[in-house]
From TrEMBL:
UniProt xrefs under PANTHER family: SLR1162 PROTEIN
Keywords linked to the UniProt accession: Membrane, Transmembrane, Transmembrane helix
InterPro entries on file: ABM_predict (IPR038762), Dimeric_a/b-barrel (IPR011008)
Coiled-coil region list: none
Record organism: Paraburkholderia unamae
The protein's name in its UniProt record: Antibiotic biosynthesis monooxygenase
Regions crossing the membrane: 224-245, 251-280, 292-312
Length: 313
């Protein structure tokens, strides 16, 4: 798609690589950045996440309701100052980049708590200031994997949505049950009409139902989905894309995604889960051997897929 035909961007991605031991100052910076973005005209959502648990690479996606609102945020002196404040935290050996994007980033190897809050009319400024404080606090807890903050999407749906991500259920529970969080919730309760919270324990729960107390590890789920999805996408590129070449990119993408999701959901994932069940949930008596054999099997299958498509295309 030519740049001249591309729709105006409404989101901006900022990629950064932190220097070692910059966790605490970066946590405080995230809170300030979230507070500033949430006050900007046309703010829709802010997604801050690392590439993986413990990674120094972070991605900050800033979404706005219109291209004009995005440009105003890009040119805002407050944003410029906050980006400048990042300079001492960046790894000097990695070039910082910022570019427009239409795609979000959500790490799969984590557990997420979804919190929806209805703010009392006229108390929005108080709520945003409080949100800055609680984000700064949660960012300092072990296992923190980023936050997504979304403003009310319409007058008919007047609630703020926050996704809080941690590496494991235990680390998330440590934050949710902490005295710091309880004190902060007590402080904001007079200013909110209602709030509720629920957990998203598994990114592919429908494909990997829990056996006993928990589903397979998220990284195994992701690895198996990749194994199944890759050949579907490659076949679509080879055979479906030429048939849809005359269609609008949105229509072509929708058709391709619909076919991919349908094939992966049924029957491919059911077959893959059944075939690799011994690795997804290894027997405790032979866990080490099965884990190693499963990892080698997955690697071999990846290589086979790559070889097949590199030769066929």
């Amino acid at each position: 798609m030519n740049d001249s035909n591309r729709p105006p961007a409404t989101a901006l991605t900022t990629n950064i690589t932190l220097r070692p031991d910059m966790g605490p100052p970066f946590a405080a910076w995230q809170a300030k950045f979230t507070h500033a973005a949430a006050q900007a005209q046309g703010f829709l959502a802010l997604d801050i996440a690392p590439a993986f648990a413990g990674s120094a690479d972070w991605r900050i996606i800033q979404r706005f309701r219109s291209p004009e609102a995005l440009r105003a945020w890009q040119d805002a002196p407050q944003r410029a100052q906050l980006i400048a404040d990042l300079a001492p935290m960046r790894d000097p050996h990695v070039t910082a980049t910022a570019h427009d994007t239409l795609h979000s980033f959500d790490p799969l190897s984590c557990v997420t708590e979804v919190i929806t809050t209805v703010v009392e009319p006229g108390k929005e400024i108080i709520f945003r200031t409080w949100a800055e404080t609680i984000q700064s606090s949660q960012s300092s807890f072990p296992g923190y994997m980023g936050t997504l903050v979304q403003a009310p999407v319409s007058e008919a749906s007047q609630y703020w949505t926050t996704l809080v991500r941690f590496s494991s259920p235990d680390e998330l529970d440590a934050w949710l049950g902490s005295s710091e969080r309880k004190q902060l919730l007590q402080r904001v309760e007079p200013h909110v009409a209602s709030w509720k919270s629920y957990r998203m324990p598994s990114p592919f729960a429908g494909w990997f139902p829990a056996a006993g107390d928990k589903p397979p590890p998220a990284w195994k789920q992701t690895a198996l989905v990749l194994l199944v999805l890759f050949p579907v996408v490659m076949l679509e590129i080879r055979f479906l894309s030429p048939l849809l070449a005359g269609q609008h990119v949105a229509i072509a993408t929708f058709i391709g995604n619909a076919i991919s999701v349908s094939l992966v959901s049924w029957p491919l994932m059911k077959i893959a889960v059944a075939a690799m069940g011994w690795w997804l949930r290894p027997s405790p008596a032979r866990r080490s051997q099965l884990e190693a054999l499963g990892a080698c099997t997955m690697l071999a299958l990846y290589l086979i897929e790559l070889a097949v498509f590199m030769l066929a295309f």
